[in-house]
Structures are given as structure tokens and as C-alpha cells.
Write a structure and sequence with these properties.
about 675 residues; alpha/beta; 6-stranded mixed sheet; 5-stranded mixed sheet; binds beta-D-glucopyranose
């Protein structure tokens, strides 16, 4: 572990005890320490330090943007902040797939889809490493729930691993050239990840050619000394139980060869050398942390992430010029009782756990303040919290009743009610899965009572994932899903509500009518409720998220890839030709997209493929490409895609290889997984 580092070297801190993550240097041999931190939402060092940084985004908000270029800019900016705060390695990004809506860390993941995850994470990793910070994608592999997270034994077949849970990691290594990777706590097919020879040694190192640093997940992840050396774990985090002295002893006793340790050390030193860490790197001034430029990037995320799910009779956008808006709901302002001194403030508008950052207290744009500032002089805004905060506590019925009554009166007296409901880092957090997919009951009651007196009711759900809206969705006029989208979140929402920008977010996960739509195996199957970490079977196989729901379309409320804007788009003249490029066939696909409405707008053009003649069951469609296009009213553009062989391939477990089965495929171009606008047949011979 790292000691002897002056907390002042790693940024502005408050007076709490400080613990920095990292590895000691060796002055005699000129090896500097390797300081680790997190850049998941914003830069955060050790477990309890309070370094203040720009809160840029959450991964789920980036998932909603479908915008790799934007996330690459976030990566570049986060690298600058990490360097300025003395950090060399980012313990991220979190690349696990959203398997079930209750997953506690879903907000820290990008999507239920491997391709979307991969497309977003790879440019981020490249940008961050170009900026001099090592990326450590995590948690490798099949780490999809918090329940029994230290021991759960996830049983998956090879095809499911290869097609769903590994592609983003593989791309992070092969395309992103990630220099580190974090081995997860859980077991996969019986072996703890930190000694999983199959995945860590054979797949990651031998097949994918990874020669960087394998970091164990933190306390309790490693089970043994020799097993982890053999599997290729470079660094044990955080207090050494199996490396350090036990490693020296194992070496003396002949259980571990010195040459095996040398190989691991070489990996670490090679990475540090590649990043220029062995030389005196120019320092990055602290003034770059939370700079105006970085705040502007956070502003882009905040405008691009919200997803408009419902907009009856085009109620949105609202006029910012006149009338009266009742701004109601617990997420409209910072919860009372949250304090800067103990860091609890940062559970507002963010998920909880190691991924959150301690943003600059006064920098967060609360929705109420943003709306008040955006309102013209003739627009009145009245405010009521409406119910207690979503912090996991239960409150006296009389208090709840009072808050609600007051809010309902304001809603009735206003022209429009905008409700800010949702969750917080108290209930969406590392270490524990959500206990329910519904909003807290007091929020459901509030929405229903407000909607009963105010037909123009807009609900903004500020949270990190799926909410079962069935109890109230038919009663409200509009629904905006606002993922935790960084410190400028309130401004982004105000811009959308008042029509300064057209909403452009798209769902990176499916939104079913209820969580019962998921196969039972996706939620703690097998013996997982026992405390022994028994097997948790991924019996749904490759049928995760929309791949499963497509078989039950009646249970889809808002499909994967869906999101409304303030305009409409038509698709025409879809074309597909095969060309042979250096003996490799490539499918050249294009379609004309036209903005047919009278507002500017951004469309996410999505390409799905269905292997019609496969010998094994295949999903009805799988995302294989997408492109973001912004068009003015009346403007049209031809959008082009190149689909290579691997986009048509599936993993054949019998041959242990990816292969394209000859036969018929359908290429589908659409605005969501359900809204397919063109189907093109293709024969692969
Ligand atoms: C989490 C990791 C995190 C680490 C350090 C672990 O419990 O699973 O994601 O990087 O703690 O905070």
C-alpha cells in the first residue's frame, strides 16, 4: 500500500482522514509510486478523501447520449484532472453489462448491450491514456449484481460469455489498448476471478495479447498467493493479504517461482515506462481542475443525456415567457440534511459507492435553480418538495401528508406541474442491489394526486436506471428520464423543458412494463440467497435485455434505443451492397434521414442484424452499428455504415470460434429496437 504521500499532493482535501490508493515506489531504483483513483463520474482519489473535481457524468448518462465523441472529450478532460491531482491510474471504466434492472451498480454501467458499451468505452480509454493516465476497465468478468458480490459463483456458457459479457472487455484491450484491467470479486464457472486461469491467463493474456497490469478488486478479492500469481494478477489491492510478505514466503518455500514474479513486475514497469512515468513528467497545474472548459463539457452531457419517453399532445417544450409552473418533488433541490462535511451531499443527483465523486458543493445545478434562472420575467415559478427525499428512510405519515397537500394545492393553482421525482445514491449504490423497481410509495402517491388536479403534469425522473411507472404513467402528460448527468444536470433539463435544445437521449437499456418481464434467472437464481455464495446460473444465456424482451413485445413499454425529440425523422432509400475488400467482404449500407418537423433535432440511426438461418437460436435483432446525426428542419443526409464480417458472426461453442453461418440475414435500420424503418435482406455465402 501507499504511504508517505502528502495529502496536499493529491488535491484539495477537507480535514478527514485520507487514504490514497496505490503502490509504493522504490526510490533506490528510480521507480515512482503508482497512484490510483477513480474517474467514473469525476475524479476521486482514495476511499474517503474529498478531492473536489468536475462532476462530468455517470456512465449511464453517457449510455443515454450514444455519443462516443462526447465521451472521448470527457476522457481527455478527466485525464487532465487526474494528472493535476497527482493520479496515474483510473480504476475504471466500469464495463459490466446491465443484466437486471435491480443491479445496484447499473448507474455505473453504460448499457445492457455489448456493442453500445464497447463503442462508448473504447474512445474514452484511448483519450484518457493519450492524456497520460492508465485505464483499468473493470470488473472482469461477469460482475452483474451486488448481492453476495464477494463470492457469488456465476455459471455461464461460453457463447454467453463471448457474445454478451466479454466483447466490451476484449475491445478495451484490443482496440482501446487498455494498459490495466481489474479482476472482479466474483467467481465465474467455479473459479474466483483473481485466480481464474481460463479467463485471466488463457483468454486475456494468451488470446487477446494483454501484457499490462491486472489489479485485483479491493478487499477480499484475492483468495491465494500462488493461484493469483499463476493467473497473472499483478497487484493486490488494497491491504496485502496474499502478496507482500506472504508472496516472499511462498517464493522461499518454492510455491511460486521468482521468475513468475519477475514477469508480473515487468508488466507493471513496462506500463509505467510507456506512460512516461519513469521520467519526470511535466506536472499539470491544479487550475485545470474544475475549469470553465471542463464545466462546459459537463454542460454538453447534461443537455444530451435526458431521454424524452412520453410527450402527450406535444406538451413539451414549455414556454419560459409567461404563466405559472409548479416545480414539485424531492429531487428538485438538494435534500435537507445532506452535509458537505461528511460527503453525504454527493449522494444527491448521483449514485453511491466508489464511482461517485465529491463534486464542488456549490457547482451542482439543482433543477429548481436552473428553471428559476431560465424563466423570463413574466413566468412565475412556485415550489414545493411534495414528499420526503428518496434516501431509504421511512417518514411519519402526517409529515408526508402535509408535504403532499401543499404540493397538490400549488399544482392545481399553476398552469403546468413539473415533478422532479426519482432516486439517489442512498438507494442506487455499490454493495447492495435495489429492493424495488418502483418509486418510493410517497412519490407514487404524489404523482397521482398532482396529476388528478393538473392535466399538464410533466414527470422528470432523476435516477440511474429503470423505474416501474405502471401505477401512474397513464395519468401524466409527459415523462423525461433524466439520468444522473453531471453537475450541470439542472441546466440541461431546463434547456430541454423550455425548448432551447431538442431532447436527443436514447435508452441504452430496455424499459419494460414491469421487471417481471425479465427471466427469473436474471435475478439471483440458484442458491444465491444463501450466504455461501452458491451458484448463480445465467440460464437466459445470450437473451439479455432487448434480446429477451423481443420475444415478449407486449411487455416492452419503451424499447431499447428509444427516445423522442421535438421533431420527426423519415428514413428513405436504404441501400446495401457487398464489396470485397482484400478478400474480406464488407456490406456497405446507407440510408437517407430527413428532418421532417419544424425544429432542429438529433437522430440516432441504429442498425440491427438478424441471422435468419442460424442453426442455433439467435435474437430477433442485435445492435451492430449506430450513428448520431443532427439535422435542421427540412435537412436530409445520407448516413453510411460499413458492416464487416464480424458483425454477422456468432460464437460457435462446438468449434470454440466466431463464425458466420452462410445463409440469409436481415439488416434492419431503425430509430429504436422496435421502430424499424427499413429491412434489407442479405445472403452470406
Ligand atoms: C469496487 C471497485 C472499486 C474499489 C476501490 C471495490 O469495492 O468494487 O469498483 O474500484 O472498491 O474503491
Amino acid at each position: 500500500p501507499l504511504s508517505g504521500i502528502d495529502p496536499d499532493d493529491v488535491g484539495e482535501v477537507w480535514s478527514l482522514p485520507m487514504r490514497i490508493f496505490g503502490i509504493e515506489g522504490d526510490e533506490k531504483h528510480g521507480i515512482p509510486p503508482l497512484v490510483m483513483g477513480h474517474a467514473i463520474t469525476g475524479v476521486r482519489s482514495g476511499r474517503i478523501s474529498r478531492v473536489k473535481s468536475t462532476y462530468f457524468c455517470t456512465p449511464i448518462a453517457i449510455g443515454c447520449t450514444w455519443d462516443p465523441d462526447l465521451y472521448s472529450r470527457v476522457g481527455e478532460a478527466m485525464a487532465v484532472e487526474m494528472r493535476a491531482l497527482g493520479q496515474d491510474l483510473n480504476l475504471g471504466p466500469t464495463m459490466n453489462i446491465i443484466r437486471h434492472p435491480l443491479g445496484g451498480r447499473n448507474w455505473e454501467s453504460f448499457s445492457e448491450d455489448p456493442l453500445l458499451t464497447r463503442r462508448l468505452a473504447v474512445p474514452f480509454i484511448r483519450a484518457m491514456q493519450e492524456g497520460g493516465v492508465i485505464c483499468c476497465p473493470k470488473h472482469f468478468a461477469a460482475n452483474n449484481q451486488e448481492h453476495q458480490r464477494f463470492d457469488i459463483n456465476n455459471i455461464l456458457d461460453e457463447q454467453t460469455l463471448r457474445e454478451i459479457y466479454l466483447p466490451a472487455f476484449e475491445a478495451a484491450v484490443r482496440e482501446g489498448e487498455a494498459l490495466a484491467i481489474m479482476a472482479a470479486y466474483n467467481r465465474v464457472n467455479g473459479q474466483y476471478m483473481c485466480e481464474n486461469m481460463r479467463l485471466l491467463r488463457e483468454l486475456l493474456r494468451e488470446e487477446w495479447g494483454f501484457d499490462g497490469i491486472v489489479v485485483s478488486d479491493f478487499a477480499k478479492a484475492m483468495q491465494s498467493t500462488a493461484g493469483s500469481v499463476r493467473a497473472g494478477v499483478t497487484i493486490e489491492m488494497d491491504a496485502p493479504c496474499h502478496y507482500g510478505e506472504p508472496l516472499v514466503a511462498a517464493c522461499r518455500e518454492g510455491r511460486v517461482e521468482e521468475s513468475e514474479i519477475d514477469l508480473l513486475l515487468k508488466d507493471k514497469l513496462r506500463v509505467m515506462q510507456r506512460m512516461g512515468m519513469m521520467n519526470d513528467r511535466p506536472s499539470v497545474p491544479r487550475t485545470h481542475v474544475h475549469s470553465r472548459a471542463h464545466r462546459a463539457i459537463a454542460g454538453e452531457v447534461a443537455r444530451r443525456a435526458p431521454v424524452l419517453l412520453k410527450n402527450r399532445d406535444s406538451l413539451l417544450p414549455l414556454s419560459s415567457r409567461s404563466g405559472c409552473i409548479g416545480v414539485i418533488g424531492p429531487n428538485s433541490t438538494r435534500f435537507s440534511g445532506l452535509r458537505p462535511e461528511d460527503g453525504s451531499y454527493a449522494l444527491y443527483l448521483q449514485g453511491g459507492g466508489s464511482g461517485r465523486c465529491f463534486y464542488v458543493y456549490d457547482a451542482i445545478r439543482e433543477p429548481l435553480v436552473s428553471l428559476q434562472e431560465a424563466a423570463g420575467p413574466e413566468l412565475t415559478i412556485r415550489h414545493a418538495p411534495g414528499c420526503p427525499p428518496p434516501n431509504g428512510e421511512t417518514f411519519p405519515a402526517a409529515m408526508v401528508e402535509d408535504l403532499r397537500r401543499n404540493a397538490v394545492t400549488i399544482a392545481a393553482e399553476s398552469d403546468t406541474a413539473v415533478l422532479f421525482c426519482g432516486l439517489s445514491g442512498f438507494v442506487e449504490t455499490e454493495g447492495i442491489d435495489r429492493s424495488s423497481c418502483k418509486l418510493p410509495p410517497e412519490q407514487e402517491a404524489l404523482i397521482l394526486e398532482v396529476a388528478a388536479v393538473q392535466p399538464r403534469t410533466v414527470v422528470c425522473l432523476i435516477c440511474g436506471g429503470y423505474i416501474d411507472v405502471s401505477a401512474w404513467i397513464d395519468e401524466v402528460a409527459a415523462l423525461l428520464f433524466c439520468p444522473y448527468a453531471g453537475e450541470m444536470i439542472g441546466d440541461g433539463i431546463a434547456d430541454i423543458l423550455f425548448g432551447r435544445v431538442s431532447p436527443r437521449g436514447r435508452l441504452p437499456f430496455s424499459w419494460p412494463t414491469s421487471a417481471d418481464a425479465y427471466p427469473p434467472s436474471t435475478y439471483f437464481s440458484g442458491e444465491a440467497h444463501s450466504e455461501t455464495g452458491e451458484s448463480n446460473r445465467y440460464d437466459e444465456g445470450i437473451f439479455v435485455g432487448y434480446r429477451h424482451l423481443a420475444r415478449h413485445p407486449e411487455s416492452i413499454l419503451y424499447p431499447f434505443g428509444f427516445g423522442l425529440g421535438y421533431t420527426t425523422f423519415s428514413y428513405s432509400d436504404a441501400r446495401c451492397t457487398m464489396i470485397t475488400n482484400e478478400s474480406d467482404p464488407v456490406c456497405m449500407l446507407s440510408v437517407v434521414v430527413n428532418n421532417t418537423g419544424d425544429a432542429e433535432g438529433t437522430e440516432v440511426v441504429q442498425v440491427y442484424i438478424h441471422d435468419v438461418e442460424s442453426s442455433r437460436p439467435r435474437p430477433a435483432r442485435e445492435l451492430r452499428e449506430f450513428r448520431v446525426v443532427s439535422l435542421q428542419p427540412g435537412e436530409s443526409r445520407r448516413v453510411q455504415f460499413e458492416l464487416r464480417r464480424d458483425m454477422f458472426a456468432g460464437f460457435n461453442p462446438a468449434r470454440n470460434a466466431w463464425e458466420v453461418e452462410p445463409g440469409h440475414f436481415e439488416i434492419m435500420i431503425g430509430a429504436s429496437e422496435r421502430d424499424i424503418r427499413a429491412v434489407l435482406p442479405l445472403a452470406w455465402t
